[in-house]
Design brief:
- The chain contains three helices and no strands.
- The protein is an all-alpha fold.
- 0% of the residues are buried.
Length: 52
């Protein structure tokens, strides 16, 4: 199950976006490369039908 972002995480990301320290595309890449996202992906694949 995905968890919602914390207020601190949202504030940090919004601050970086507002100061042009990062754009939306790179923010998406950073989020997708996080260990938390990788764990969710592996768990999602494992619950698919016919998982071996």
């Amino acid at each position: 199950m995905l968890r919602p972002a914390t207020a601190q995480e949202l504030n940090d990301h919004l601050s970086r976006l507002n100061t042009d320290a990062i754009n939306r595309e790179w923010l998406a890449v950073e989020v997708a490369q996080s260990p938390e996202a990788a764990t969710h992906l592996v768990g999602s694949v494992m619950v698919q039908p016919d998982w071996i």
